[in-house]
């Protein structure tokens, strides 16, 4: 059976570096399941792999979309499985990497058979979002489904719309709706996690945000600001991404720059906390320490080889 190695962990933990090392070791390719790295206009703020990193191993689903494009998790599941079929004709092992938990879940387990969006519900939620802000949607979801609230990207209004709509339609929490068995896959999955003490994760996040600012995040966000203010951009969920939404408030003179940067760090740490909550509930992840040695990496290869030969 073919094997998908899925590299997971919090934001800023070093997933890209490990994925490339594994891809080079097994002479294979990488699929990204980071839903924000799909957008070509957001390279710096989403920590997309650099040109140098992309040259070290072939990547898929990096910068293939514009922020104007609609792309659902269902489309990603379909496209990823189609690509995996092609890649498994050439390779016994393929690497997947990313911290978008539901996107990884869609590939390795499949999506649940959930009802289509209810137009009336969507209109109601759209009005709430426009009149009371995303905070009201966050509050609603927290009341309706505190478990899902702990892991969902609460800065993505479309994700909040979807969860609340499903809860209203089914009378069950979103967590209950997505807990049922899905379609079995025709490949084996080995999940590799990178871990570190929480304070170390937060320190890495803070340093990474500073590096993003040095590398031109301000200019990258400014290039999206005109679109954000247009009729077309007003409802784009992609522009509600951490690292950009805070800088938009700086451009609007609601916040000064230092405060906007501190909010990027805070919201990035909050996202990491949600990732930790999600991954702690998973039982089939084999962990390696961040900052691992060559000896640790060789042990990891031994572990993977033992699993692929079973």
Structural key phrases:
Rossmann fold; 14 helices; Histone, subunit A; 2 domains; 310 residues; 6 strands; alpha/beta; 54% helix
Please describe the topology of this protein:
Layout: E1 3-8, H1 15-25, E2 30-32, H2 51-56, E3 59-60, H3 73-90, E4 93-97, H4 101-108, H5 119-132, H6 134-144, H7 146-149, H8 157-170, H9 174-177, E5 188-195, H10 198-214, H11 217-229, H12 245-251, H13 257-280, E6 285-289, H14 294-308
Parallel strand pairs: 1-4, 1-5, 2-3, 2-4, 5-6
How would you describe this structure to a colleague?
The protein has 310 residues and is of the alpha/beta class. It has 2 domains: 3-111 and 182-308, Rossmann fold; 119-177, Histone, subunit A (Orthogonal Bundle). The protein has 14 helices and 6 strands. It has a 6-stranded parallel sheet, with helices on both faces. Helix 2 links the parallel strand 2 (30-32) and strand 3 (59-60). Helix 10 (198-214) crosses helix 13 and helix 12 (245-251) runs antiparallel to helix 13. The radius of gyration is 19 Å and the shape is globular. The mean pLDDT is 94.
């Amino acid at each position: 059976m073919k094997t998908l190695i899925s590299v997971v962990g919090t934001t800023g933990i070093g997933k890209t570096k490990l994925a490339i090392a594994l891809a080079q070791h097994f002479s294979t390719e990488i699929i990204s399941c980071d839903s924000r790295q799909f957008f070509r206009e957001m390279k710096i703020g989403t920590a997309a792999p650099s040109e140098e990193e992309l040259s070290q191993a072939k990547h898929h689903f990096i910068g293939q979309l514009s922020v104007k494009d609609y792309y659902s998790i269902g489309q990603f599941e379909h496209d990823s499985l189609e690509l995996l079929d092609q890649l498994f004709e050439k390779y016994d092992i393929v690497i997947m990497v990313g911290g978008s938990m539901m996107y990884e879940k869609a590939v390795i387990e499949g999506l649940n058979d959930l009802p289509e969006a209810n137009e009336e519900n969507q209109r109601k939620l759209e009005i709430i979002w426009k009149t009371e802000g995303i905070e009201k949607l966050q509050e609603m979801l927290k009341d309706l489904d505190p478990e899902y609230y702990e892991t969902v990207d609460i800065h993505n209004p479309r994700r909040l719309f979807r969860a609340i709509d499903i809860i209203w339609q089914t009378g069950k929490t979103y967590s209950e709706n997505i807990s049922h068995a899905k379609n079995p896959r025709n490949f084996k999955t080995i999940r590799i996690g990178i871990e570190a003490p929480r304070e170390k994760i937060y320190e890495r996040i803070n340093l990474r945000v500073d590096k993003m600012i040095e590398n031109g995040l301000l200019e990258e966000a400014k290039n999206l600001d005109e679109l954000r203010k247009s009729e077309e951009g007003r409802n784009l969920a992609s522009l509600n991404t951490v690292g950009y939404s805070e800088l938009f408030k700086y451009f609007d003179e609601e916040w000064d720059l230092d405060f906007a940067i501190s909010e990027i760090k805070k919201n990035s740490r909050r996202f990491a906390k949600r990732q930790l909550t999600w991954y702690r509930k998973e039982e089939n992840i084999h962990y390696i320490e961040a900052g691992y040695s060559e000896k640790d990496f060789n042990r990891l290869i031994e572990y993977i080889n033992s699993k692929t030969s079973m």
